[in-house]
Design goal:
This protein has 2 helices and 7 strands, in the order βββββββαα. With 145 residues, it is of the alpha+beta class.
Length: 145
């Protein structure tokens, strides 16, 4: 059995044994975040009963940065999965970003002819959107926690 060669990579007081790979993470509305490095950790919140789940990846780049990618996957093929990625100078900054990430921003804004809606219908849409935001925040917090 053979394993790929790994080289030590140091970041502060922590030394990682890594095998470098090139990554290009799409970012909505931005150019892809491209880097060479290795994946340090991955956590996933998949639950069959929910229509979506989160995946968090942390990467160490060859130039000493740390990349966090937060992906929201949907079980439905009609919805588009979302990837957001950021680069940080330290692992502490990366963890801080994950802890303060607001999954409520991942809930889509409802569409409709709001001018034609009755006040009760508008209120129901607002309550449903609020519930979806709180569910996304709670779900993500359960993964991070």
């Amino acid at each position: 059995m053979s394993f790929p060669m790994q080289s030590p990579e140091s970041s502060g007081d922590v030394t990682f044994m890594t095998s470098s790979t090139s990554y290009s993470l799409p970012q909505p509305g931005k150019r892809p975040l491209t880097f060479t490095g290795s994946e340090l950790a991955m956590a996933m919140s998949f639950t069959p009963a929910l229509p979506y789940w989160y995946e968090i990846n942390i990467y160490s780049t060859n130039d000493g940065q740390f990349v966090v990618a937060i992906r929201k996957f949907f079980q439905s093929e009609t919805e588009e999965d979302v990837v957001k990625a950021w680069s940080f100078p330290s692992i502490d900054h990366a963890f801080e970003h994950i802890q303060h990430y607001d999954a409520g921003h991942d809930v889509p804004v409802p569409h409709g002819d709001f001018a034609a809606m009755a006040p009760a219908e508008m209120s129901a849409v607002a309550l449903q959107t609020h519930a979806q935001i709180e569910e996304a925040r709670s779900h993500f917090a359960g993964l991070v926690g």
